[in-house]
Amino acid sequence: MPSTQPNIIITGTPGVGKTSHCEVLAANTGLKHLSINQVVRDRGCHDGWDEEYRSWIVDEDKLLDSLEDELAQGGHIIDWHACDLFPKRWIDLVVVLRTDSTKLYDRLKARNYLEQKLQDNLDSEIMEVLLDEARESYDEEIVVELRSDEADDIEVNVGRIKTWIKNWRQDQVEDAA
Ligand SMILES: Nc1ncnc2c1ncn2[C@@H]1O[C@H](COP(=O)(O)OP(=O)(O)OP(=O)(O)O)[C@@H](O)[C@H]1O
Q1: H-assigned helices in the chain
Q2: Alpha-carbon torsion (71, 134, 172, 28), positive or negative
Q3: CA distance 122 to 73
Q4: What is the pLDDT of residues 162-172, one digit of tens each?
Q5: What is the crossing angle of helices 151-176 and 18-29, to 10°?
Q6: Ligand 1 binding pocket, CB closer than 6 Å
Q7: Dihedral through CA 34, CA 149, CA 166, CA 85, nearest 10?
Q8: Which of 11, 67, 118, 142 is the most buried (most CB within 10 A)?
């Protein structure tokens, strides 16, 4: 039976505003915020810690096995700086957040990112790496690019995603009739 709740990926370069968006979206919709960083850490879906990048080395097979039952039911907001590993059949909408590189620099600097990591992330944002990844991995019509430059953008973006969810649910009802 098809799910009555969509799964939405919120992706983008680190610091672009994924967590900020997911928290507001979850509070406004009742969808469950799945921080993949937390899942990887809490469920041990990794092959250890990368000291240089100060991040977990993700075991993608273990991660997908661990998420399969939840995602098959729908109703989740997936918060991660990558998207191509999630099978298309689980995903209904992919939101790629984008921001200005000077704003991203300030946000990452405030987090004390190491210079190399900061530069790699700025390059990734400028080169639209996540947008390309999303467009290559999912159907064009489910990939949406949204700006996350100012605090007000979060409210506007969440409003747009809520409208999308409402329409998606309506389509499900009509398809089932
Ligand atoms: N639209 C925005 N306008 C102004 N500041 C923002 C915006 N979005 C996020 N920020 C700020 O930028 C910082 C990073 O935000 P956030 O943690 O949501 O990013 P992220 O993409 O989830 O990062 P990561 O991938 O590292 O978890 C926070 O200090 C947050 O308050």
Answers
A1: 18-29, 36-42, 60-73, 101-110, 115-126, 129-137, 151-176
A2: positive
A3: 35
A4: 999 999 999 99
A5: 50
A6: 12, 14-20, 81, 107, 148-151, 153-154
A7: -40
A8: 11
* Identity of the amino acid at 126: I
Ligand 1: which atom is nearest the Cα of residue 147? 1
**Probe residue for ligand 1, chosen from 107, 125, 160 as the CB with the greatest number of ligand atoms within 8 Å:** 107
Q: Phi first, then psi: what are they for 126, rounded to 5°? A: -65, -35
Instruction: Look at residue 56 and give its three-state secondary structure.
Output: strand
Torsion angle in degrees (nearest 10) through CA of 7, 9, 10, 12:
180
Q: How confident is the model at residue 1 (pLDDT cuts 50, 70, 90)?
A: low
Assembly ipTM:
0.98
pTM higher than the cut 0.90: yes
Whether pLDDT at 2 is above 80: no
